[in-house]
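Researcher: Hi, I'm a grad student and pretty new to this. My advisor asked me to get structures for two proteins we've been looking at. I'm not sure of the right format, so I'll just paste the first sequence and hope you can take it from there.
Model: That works fine. Here's the first sequence with its structure tokens right after it:
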Amino acid sequence: MSRVCVIGCIWEFIRACIIFFSPVYIDNTVNMEITARRIIWGKCANAGQTCIAPDYILCSQDVQKDFVEKARVALKEFYGENVKNSPDLCRIVSDRHYQ
């Protein structure tokens, strides 16, 4: 594979990530409670069908543990103990809408 092809492939990957994906980077300096609440809200608003919904999170393993803990708390706060039965959680209306 030529150097030009490799650079072109890498550029296409980076462009796709910037245009089509919404990554979130979390470091250890954030207020994790606020961060988790905002990310969960962004992902769950309108069943995640918004252009600003986070697609994935980049972070260290220590940050990941803290985020998961705080995200569980935020989910319970937003949707109660049984998320599946929450009237506040958006749902896909039909199979046609799901596809």
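Researcher: Oh nice, that was easy. Here's the second one.
Model: And its structure:
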Amino acid sequence: MAETESAASREFEMAPGPIERGEPARAPTVDVHPPRWYEKGSYTALSGLFHGLAKLYFRLEVRGREHLPPAPYVVSPVHRSNIDFILVSCIHSTRMRYMGKASIWKYPTLGRFFSMLGAFPVRRGTADRESLRTCMRIIENGESLVMFPEGTRREGPKVAELFDGPAFVAARTGAPIVPIGIGGSAQAMPLGAKFIKPHKIVLMVGEPIYPPAGDGTGRVKRRVVREMTEQLGVDLQALYDEARQRAE
């Protein structure tokens, strides 16, 4: 018998990695609501400011915007640098939602600021089902979601083994996955770096990966999730290769 949603959700890992000291046992419950005017305005203003600065400092290029489908969708970039999350905001000005370490929300002011900009808490090192439900509510609420399928920052020219999170959320909600290759961010701010260098950066937006139509039961077959993850890996590698070449 084909494995369905319950099996996939057991394997689903939002943000793999060691559980950090001080992180709560579970990520806090997230209030998912349509973005308020000040949330949309803050996100648009800050992402626009960063985009302008990035074009000057990184000679930033964003290619393939014509591939973006109507929202909502799951944005799935490669991950080589701490600046990747804000670089992804340059693909368009509409607010997207991001995952953040749950420990950030220990500080109320900082947590509120990150929440206003679209971030929500995820506990590292566990398949946090509350975070999984949050991802699906965000998509169902009409906002796009950023999920790094490699899980954490990686090194090297090869895309690491992907986790099934983006594919599971896409298959469960019917939203497409948009793969993104990011070239040059590893040189601008590599692992362990404290400063950002002015290196050229290129974002390559790939064609969306659409989940197959459901069977009417609301369940997600593990085979479908795996096939989407495999396709995402192939597309990401091609986009990452091209982005790196253009950023040299």
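Researcher: Is there anything I should tell my advisor about the second?
Model: You could mention this: The CA atoms of residues 5 and 219 lie 5 Å apart.
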